[in-house]
Every structure is written in structure tokens, then in C-alpha cells.
């Protein structure tokens, strides 16, 4: 399954906070006014935001393993089902660099300068926090026997250790 991050929702999709096409919070149709567009996220907008978050975590993960560059990241993310264009990825890389999560390295490759990105200390801390939150979320959200058995097994082993002490 391929997930496209460049989701463009039809103009008249219902806001997730609206009922019957009228905004519950403001009592008017939010889709007629461009200035309130940011306040009213459609389902597709929310999914796009979720996937961009996943992609950022994925970028930090790979930049922590080895220096990475844009086109290689596009290929790696495609392997995981994310279809990104350079026009989507490069602004994300620049944002992560500007915020101090990545550092850019210029390297000469075949006579051209290629921009590589590596994880900074701040990026490593953020990635560690994100991993912990993802693990917690996956354990809570996934409703499968595997997830339940894994959680129960940990609880049992902790109890068994406490009783033996």
C-alpha cells in the first residue's frame, strides 16, 4: 500500500469539528471563509499531519544511523509506502535543520556537492522521546493479540520478580 503525503482535499469536505456542514464552534459554514481554514481540519488534513510526523521521526532515525541525503531518503520512505516529492521532503529537512535536530554536511560526490544530513544531540534526544511515545501509543492503540500478549508478558515478569525478592 502506498500512502501519498501530498493530499489535497476537495474544497467542500466537512470539517471534523462540524455537524451537518455548519461549524459547531462558530455557528457558520467554515469552508466559505479562507481565514478560518487552519482552524478547521478535514480528515485528509489530519492524516497528512500524522504522516508528516511519522516521516520526521523516520528521517531522524536514518540520520542517526548514518549521514543521509534527500533522494536516498525519498527512496527509503517510498520503500515504507510514503510517496514524497523533493518539494515536500526538502522543506522538512530544512525545517529539521533550522530547529537544530539535523546538521548539514556538504560532500563532493562525482564532482558535485551533495548535502548530507546527520542527527544532532538535540535530534537524538527528540528521537529518543519520540520512540518512547511511539512505543506507548502502539501498545495502547493496536488491538491485536500480539500486542496484548507482549504487554501481559512484561507485567507478569515484573510481578514474578517482585514476589521472589
List the domain count as a whole number: 2
Question: What do the pLDDT scores average to?
Answer: 75
Going by CATH, the architecture of the largest domain would be: Orthogonal Bundle
Order of helices and strands: EEEHEHEHEEHH
Radius of gyration: 21 Å
**So, the CATH homologous superfamily of the largest domain?**
Winged helix-like DNA-binding domain superfamily/Winged helix DNA-binding domain
> Percent of residues in beta strands?
15-25%
Fold topology:
Layout (H helix, E strand, L loop, with lengths): L2 E2 L13 E2 L2 E2 L19 H23 L2 E2 H10 L2 E2 L2 H13 L3 E8 L2 E8 L1 H21 L3 H20 L1
Parallel strand pairs: 1-5
Antiparallel strand pairs: 2-3, 4-7, 6-7
Helix pairs in contact: 1-4, 2-3
Report on the architecture of this protein.
The protein is of the alpha+beta class and 165 residues long. The protein has two domains: 3-119, Winged helix-like DNA-binding domain superfamily/Winged helix DNA-binding domain (Arc Repressor Mutant, subunit A, Orthogonal Bundle), CATH 1.10.10.10; 122-165, no CATH class. It contains five helices and seven strands. It has helices at residues 43-65, 70-79, 86-98, 121-141, 145-164, and strands at residues 3-4, 18-19, 22-23, 68-69, 82-83, 102-109, 112-119. Strands 4-7-6 form a three-stranded antiparallel β-sheet. A hairpin with a 2-residue loop joins strand 6 and strand 7 (112-119). 12% of the residues are buried.
Which features characterize this protein?
single chain, 165 residues, alpha+beta, Arc Repressor Mutant, subunit A, three-stranded antiparallel sheet, two-stranded parallel ribbon, 5 helices, 53% helix, 16% strand, globular, disordered C terminus
Amino acid at each position: 500500500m502506498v500512502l501519498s503525503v501530498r493530499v489535497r482535499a476537495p474544497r467542500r469536505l466537512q470539517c471534523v469539528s462540524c455537524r451537518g456542514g455548519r461549524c459547531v464552534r462558530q455557528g457558520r459554514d467554515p469552508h466559505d471563509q479562507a481565514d478560518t481554514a487552519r482552524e478547521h481540519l478535514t480528515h485528509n488534513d489530519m492524516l497528512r499531519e500524522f504522516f508528516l510526523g511519522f516521516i520526521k521521526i523516520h528521517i531522524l532515525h536514518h540520520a542517526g544511523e548514518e549521514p543521509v541525503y534527500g533522494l536516498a531518503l525519498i527512496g527509503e520512505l517510498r520503500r515504507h509506502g510514503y510517496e514524497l516529492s523533493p518539494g515536500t521532503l526538502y522543506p522538512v529537512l530544512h525545517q529539521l535543520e533550522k530547529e537544530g535536530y539535523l546538521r548539514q554536511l556538504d560532500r563532493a560526490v562525482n564532482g558535485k556537492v551533495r548535502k548530507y544530513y546527520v542527527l544532532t544531540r538535540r535530534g537524538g534526544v527528540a528521537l529518543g522521546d519520540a520512540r518512547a511515545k511511539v512505543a506507548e501509543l502502539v501498545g495502547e492503540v493496536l488491538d491485536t493479540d500480539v500486542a496484548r500478549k507482549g504487554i501481559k508478558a512484561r507485567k507478569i515478569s515484573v510481578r514474578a520478580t517482585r514476589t521472589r525478592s
